[in-house]
Amino acid sequence: MKRNFLNNIKSKVMRLNKIFLVLLVAFSPLLKVAAQQIPVATQYIYNGYLYNPARAGQDPKYGNVFINFKKQWTAMPDAPITGIATFDSRIKSSNVGLGGYLFTDNTHIVHELGGSFSYAYHVPFSQDKTHGLSIGISTGLIHQRFDFTEAIVENPNDPTISEDNERAIAFDLSAGADYFWKGLHVGIVAPQLFNNKLKFRDSESDQIRFNYNRHLFAYASYKAMLGSKKNWSLEPLAAIRWVKAIPVQFDLEALVNFKDMAWFGGGYRSGSSFAKPEAAGMNVTAGAGIKSRLAINYSMEFLTKKENRNAFGYSHEVSISYKIGKRYEKEFQDLDEARKKIEDLNADVDKAKEDAEKAAQDAQSAQEKADKVEKDVNNLNNQVKDNTAQLQKMEQITKEYKAGTAVSYKKLGSVYFNLDSYELTKEAKANLDALKDPLNKFSKNSFVYVVGNASQESGNMYNLLLATQRAASVKKYLESIGVNKEVIILSAGEESPINAQATEEERAKNRRADILISGE
After folding, report:
1. Taking the CA of residue 136 as centre, how many other CA atoms within 13 Å lie in the half-sphere pointing to its CB?
2. Rounded Cα–Cα distance for residues 168 and 143 (Å)
């Protein structure tokens, strides 16, 4: 009975999923729900200018052209498709860098197009300009369009659905800074600095707005050269992003590079927090360089929870970059050759010192070599054991993934709302307080589902929005009192009544939010 109830809810939500998507995107400020409003590109590890205008023209040797294409969550219909093109370059031998950024971001009926121009100034702390501070600013326009002719709705004659496009343009401003020293970069950037609003026409009022919330993005990375000939490099990166009203998100990336000819790496992106990884994701990336100018990169993202991977699928991202500029190529080549000769001489001096020390300590050195050989053998044995255990673990995960996981649902209760309201009453809060301990006793793998409902006094679209707001209010309160489960909201609108609603008493019972628990 409980499973049939949830299946009924899911079937009705699927019929309204595209309207619900529009509501979440267009009315997110009303729902007190925030989302990532700027294009999310995994490959900023290849192009720092993607997020920070201070990185424009930071390379004094070359300008950079970068084209990026990303398709997200391939298992979902009408999932986001993003295209980005950037250009940045230093102005001759000055400390000024300029850049340009264009993007298009489409999710079903929501179409976004934007462009910006960046100015950066690089303050050198050393003569070779490998140490310094970059500051930058970026300004541009964002055009957002809702094409309601592509929407699939239950009632095409609903007056709240426009038969045409709704569009608006907003001014955008971003600012950032980047401290660099050889292979180190530490930076912070604030996109959508002005919190601008887009206003759209509505058939009943003129109050529909879309807020571009201010973002904060901070990162640190270090490119370490490895090997005696410095042919290899390892570049770890850690980043944190913050948007008002949603949890802080963390990124961890690492990239291994061989002579700028081939590279590979991977990363982890947190969900709502490290302690709640249900929405967390991972990525793998690889690329190749052609004649030190042209580079091709590919990245694939996937959610860490196998149930979510089945539902959302994978994200794919491809980019092509090209370095331009020959004005100072000969001078830089001469400098590189001179630096290499100095490094070789230093290496010879170090080698001579090592040989002298070795000759003075032959007996001790022989014992140390024997100890080292024994240690290396032990390390190799341990690595073989670790690799074998890792392979067995991956085989087990693959078997579990193919077998699937059976999920059951249990309804724990409901809370009720006043007419045309999504504010929690004292009685509703008391009922939710009573559910805190029972919810926290369930296993860590369980989820809390909150399903919003509405009575039938108003139109279908209004009731769907109101039911969503009710579910969001319950989620916010459960999190505020310390429920340690991931809370997922669903909206049934007026489509799941529990009676005929012939009287006010019956209608009041449909102004509710149902709380369910699921677990493996």
Report:
1. 38
2. 6
Is the pLDDT assigned to residue 403 strictly greater than 50?
A: no
Check: CB of residue 174 under 8 Å from CB of residue 194: no
Q: Span 18-34, mean pLDDT?
A: 36
> Which one-letter DSSP state was computed for residue 248?
-
Sign of CA pseudo-dihedral 497, 498, 502, 508: negative
- For residue 28, what pLDDT is reported? 36
Query: 100 Cβ partners below 8 Å, 6+ apart?
Result: 86, 87, 88, 115, 116, 117, 118
DSSP string, 270-337: -SSBTTBGGG-EEEEEEEEEETTTEEEEEEEEEESSHHHHHHH--EEEEEEEEEE--TTHHHHHHHHH
Closest among 282, 320, 101 to 191, alpha carbons compared: 101
Which residue in this structure is represented by tokens 């890792």?
Answer: 390
Alpha-carbon span 382 to 450, nearest angstrom: 48
Torsion-angle region of residue 417: left (phi > 0), alpha (psi -120 to 50) or beta? beta
Helix (H) or strand (E) holding 108: none
Span 232-267, pLDDT tens digits: 999 999 999 888 767 788 899 999 999 989 999 999
User: Strand pairing partners for 286?
Assistant: 264, 298
CA distance 506 to 54: 61
Cα 226-230-232 angle, rounded to 5 deg: 55
Q: How many distinct helices (H) and strands (E) make up the chain?
A: 8, 21
Q: Token digits for 335?
A: 């400098």
Instruction: Return the axis-axis angle of helices 426-440 and 460-480, rounded to nearest 10°.
Output: 60
- Positive or negative, the Cα torsion across 320, 325, 328, 331? positive
Q: Which fold has domain 42-330?
A: Porin (2.40.160)
CA distances from 352 to 309, 347, 365, 366 (A): 57, 9, 16, 19
CB 146 within 8 A of CB 22: yes
Token pair, residue 73, equals 């969550």
Return the structure tokens found at 77. 């219909």
| One-letter amino acid for residue 382 of the chain | N
**Domains of the chain by residue range:** 42-330, 408-519
* Domain 408-519, CATH number (from 3.40.640.10, 3.30.1330.60, 1.20.1080.10, 3.40.30.120): 3.30.1330.60
- CA nearest to 68, candidates 304, 226, 297, 305: 297
